[in-house]
Design brief:
Elements: H1 46-57, H2 59-88, H3 93-114, H4 119-124, H5 126-150, H6 161-193, H7 196-223, H8 228-242, H9 244-248, H10 256-287, E1 293-298, E2 303-307, E3 312-316, E4 319-324, H11 327-338, E5 346-349, H12 358-361, E6 368-372, H13 376-383, H14 388-394, E7 399-402, H15 406-412, E8 417-421, H16 430-433, H17 438-446, E9 448-459, H18 467-481, E10 486-489, E11 494-500, H19 510-519, H20 531-535, H21 538-554, H22 564-575, H23 580-589, H24 593-609, H25 617-645, H26 649-673, H27 676-703, H28 705-724, H29 726-736, H30 741-789
Parallel strand pairs: 5-6, 5-8, 6-7, 8-9
Antiparallel strand pairs: 1-2, 2-3, 3-4, 9-11, 10-11
Helix pairs in contact: 1-2, 2-3, 2-5, 2-6, 2-7, 2-8, 3-6, 3-30, 5-6, 5-8, 5-10, 6-7, 6-30, 7-26, 7-29, 8-10, 18-21, 18-22, 22-23, 22-30, 24-30, 25-27, 25-28, 25-29, 25-30, 26-28, 26-29, 27-28, 27-29, 27-30, 29-30
Length: about 800
């Protein structure tokens, strides 16, 4: 395609669609094709004149700034809207997968729809699209929080996957659709200033670099504790500023909407503290009906909200976390746990002890109690609501608070502990499951004294263990038994799994436990040694342990590669809701691994069969397969790093930015090579290599934190490079075949994000628990392999 002149791409809002202005600057006849100054709307000031001048003289840099702004704003919106969805839906891993899938499906749908519009109308409405995108972030944030109140289930019921679907469809899909539509129309505009394939490649590469900057900016905002509404407003204003020269020079069609939106954003920025507080209160009314809102906190790790007076109710990520003070249950749990070892001198605990159990644990002969809490802000937030006795316990000289990831702390600690307490919530996320894997229990075993005990509270059932509760209990029991010679379990509904090395020390004998209690001379009005016989009757202990041992033979131990406990905890949570989609997820979780693998590969198999009837099938299939493989690889690498090093928020921006840099470099490489077969082969090889390297990555992460970061960053760069090479190579194939640049961009954008959406929905929820991370990577590599298998001659793809 021949490159068109600048005048062919500048349209007047007052002229019929598709008719270019051919006016020159009066008095400067030697510069043809530039719009006359008298035709500019009368906006006084130097900035519009400068912006017009830049757009007229240098349209390419102006458009490049728009491409960059689109990528930056898209990533910031994705991060903050997805985090807000997690809170609105009282989320677990299913909500994360649903949100990411709807975001990607929205991009694909927007690209698909916009490519069907007449080209003149598409270009004329580019400015309106940009204006909608600038306003979308804050507007959808407010909408999502309002819908959480409107869709709130009755008091006492859990929100299910159905609510997550509705919320994602209402918030993330519209934002994605605007991104997809804008990419499509910018593809057509870019082809007017570069050749078709080069224009699409320029857009893809620069947008990826903008996404890189957006990822870094979002991470910095999260680390600084920025309010989500303010972060979205600032990102929109920054994108509007970058787009200013192109907007003023009419490169993007209508320009009044984007200016009006920018003014509105400035007003919202001034009102953002009030807006954040009002919408937080509105959302809390949906999360905790009838409970008065007290305060909320955004940290890099989580969202916390507190409500009520006595007791105070704490919600983490929209899920109920604790109520305090609750002296009876807190004291009972503390005394039962402390008596599981004969000498609880050194105690290691997760932060769950801070909301009530800590002061009762300190009544035992404890010389040091270490609390591992990586989130410093959350503990400060909690302490402001704790009763005076619990605040005093936190300042006890025997208590040491370590702000570090538990796995990192255990890896470097050398002095053994007599008691390790793993108080926490069900592992309904992969992040939570990393503290219940066989590898984590091995770290605990290495830091446990010879007569010490590890205590893990597990919500089971008052009578028999069945269904997902049996699977969860069996998997956890199997994981502990793979590491500890002795594993015991108390009856439900709130069971204690107790593990250690010495059968005489790790015991549930009521007489032994009562003797330990009595020897410590602890004064208590709610607990006594006789309660051990009432709570741990020997016949029920034998029955519970027999059921768990039988379940452990059926359900494998959870590992870092395959978090089995997460699968059952997530399925149980969804089964407890009244949501039909939740019940569908429960049904899918029961399918054998080979059935799930077949379902994941089915779209690629159908694309191979459709090759003869759909001319664009090879190129579109290659991009969809690369999108699925790239999304799978990036998710798995982030999961792998998270498993070894803890919450991702500190390094998430860096790691995702490295992946986006790989996409940009891959885009340049694919544009130069112009060989779709080779590009798809690279995507297949990169994903296969990642599948083979997971054990090496885990070993590198265990050595030093920076080595794990370096290895995972290198793998993300390689994955991004291989994935990014496919899109421009496919664009070259379609434009050489006579496809219009805007149509080609729309087809490929839709295919890329459809493949990525399928991967986002399936990988974390279904495939990783069933196949493990390595097995899931091999499945993703197979999708790219099927794209290769469906090709004809080499000439079709180069």
């Amino acid at each position: 395609m021949q490159r068109t002149s600048v005048s062919a791409t500048i349209f007047s809002p007052n002229e019929p669609p598709g008719r270019p202005r051919q006016a020159g600057i009066p008095g400067l006849p030697g510069i043809p094709g530039l719009p006359g100054i008298q035709e500019l709307p009368g906006i006084p000031g130097a900035l519009p004149a400068y912006s017009w001048f830049m757009g007229a003289i240098a349209p390419r840099p102006c458009l490049t700034a728009v491409f960059f702004a689109a990528g930056l704003l898209a990533t910031v919106m994705q991060v903050f809207l997805l985090r807000d969805l997690l809170v609105n839906a009282s989320g677990d891993e299913a909500s994360i997968g649903v949100g990411l899938a709807f975001w990607l499906l929205g991009i694909g749908a927007g690209a698909w729809f916009w490519r069907r519009l007449p080209e003149a109308r598409s270009r004329r409405e580019t400015g309106s699209l940009l204006a909608l995108l600038l306003a979308a972030g804050p507007a959808l944030l407010i909408l999502g929080r309002g819908l959480r109140l409107a869709l709130a289930p009755p008091a006492g019921e859990l929100p299910g996957l159905g609510m997550a679907l509705l919320l994602a469809a209402a918030t993330l899909s519209p934002a994605g659709a605007l991104i997809g539509a804008l990419f499509t129309t910018l593809s057509g505009i870019a082809s007017s200033h570069w050749t078709s394939a080069r224009g699409i490649t320029r857009l893809y590469v620069v947008e990826s670099l903008g996404s890189l900057a957006g990822g870094l900016a979002a991470t910095l905002a999260l680390s600084a504790g920025a309010q989500p509404s303010l972060a979205l407003i600032v990102a929109s204003l920054l994108a509007a500023s970058l787009s200013l020269p192109a907007t003023f020079s009419n490169l993007l069609g209508r320009r009044l909407p984007s200016h009006a939106v920018s003014i509105g954003l400035l007003v919202l920025a001034a009102l953002s503290p009030w807006l954040e507080s009002a919408t937080e209160r509105m959302r809390f009314r949906g999360i905790a009906p009838g409970i008065s809102f007290r305060a909320s906190l955004q940290t890099p790790y989580q969202h916390l909200a507190a409500g009520g007076d006595f007791p105070l109710h704490l919600y983490s990520g929209g899920q109920y976390a604790a109520s305090f003070p609750d002296p009876w249950s807190s004291e009972t749990l503390a005394h039962e746990s402390a008596c599981m070892t004969g000498t609880p001198s050194r105690v290691l605990a997760l932060p769950g002890v801070a909301t009530g159990s800590l002061r009762f644990l300190l009544r035992h002969p404890v010389s040091e109690l270490v609390i591992i809490e990586p989130d410093t802000r959350s503990l400060a937030f909690l302490s402001s609501f704790l009763p005076a006795e619990d605040r005093s316990a936190l300042s006890d000289p025997r208590v040491r608070i370590v702000n570090e990831d538990p796995r990192r702390f255990l890896a470097r600690e050398r002095v053994p502990f007599d008691l390790i307490l793993l108080f926490g919530q069900d592992p309904v996320t992969i992040l939570g499951a990393r503290l219940l894997s066989r590898e984590f229990f091995a770290l605990c075993a290495g830091r446990l004294s010879a007569g010490g005990a590890l205590v893990l509270p597990v919500r089971t059932a008052p009578m028999g263990l069945t269904g997902h509760t049996q699977g969860l209990g069996g998997s956890l029991f199997s994981s502990l038994a793979a590491v500890f010679p002795v594993v015991r379990a108390t009856p439900g509904p709130e069971s204690l799994f107790v593990a250690g090395r010495d059968a005489t020390a790790v015991t549930l004998d009521p007489g032994v436990l009562a003797a330990r209690w009595n020897a410590r001379n602890i004064d208590s009005s709610v607990f006594s040694g006789e309660l051990f016989r009432a709570n741990f009757p020997p016949d029920r202990v034998r029955e519970t342990e027999g059921t768990l041992r039988a379940a452990a033979t059926r359900f494998p131990a959870g590992t870092d590669d395959r978090p089995v406990s997460f699968r059952f905890a997530l399925a149980r949570r969804q089964a407890e809701t009244v949501s039909s989609p939740g019940r569908l997820l429960v049904w899918l979780a029961r399918l054998p691994a080979w059935v799930l693998a077949a379902l994941f590969l089915a779209p690629s198999l159908l694309a191979v069969l459709a090759r003869k009837t759909f001319q664009k099938s090879p190129a579109v299939h290659a991009v969809a397969a690369a999108g699925a493989a790239g999304m799978t690889s990036s998710l798995l690498l982030l999961f792998s790093y998270q498993t070894s090093n803890g919450a991702l928020y500190g390094e998430l921006g860096l790691l995702t930015s490295v992946f986006m840099l790989g996409l940009a470099l891959g885009g340049v490489l694919g544009a130069r090579a112009r060989d779709l077969r080779l590009a798809t082969l690279m995507a297949c090889a990169a994903t296969s290599g990642i599948a083979s390297l997971f054990p090496l990555m885990q070993k590198a992460s265990a050595a030093l934190p920076w080595t794990g970061l370096a290895v995972h960053a290198a793998a993300l760069l390689a994955s991004g490079l291989a994935t990014g090479a496919v899109f421009p190579a496919a664009a070259t194939v379609l434009t050489k075949a006579g496809e219009d640049a805007r149509q080609a961009g729309g087809w490929l954008e839709a295919a890329d994000h459809a493949g990525a959406a399928i991967a986002a929905l399936a990988v974390s929820i279904l495939l990783v628990p069933a196949l493990g991370m390595a097995g899931t990577a091999w499945m993703a590599a197979s999708t790219a392999g099927l794209a290769l298998a469906g090709w004809g001659s080499r000439q079709e793809h180069s």
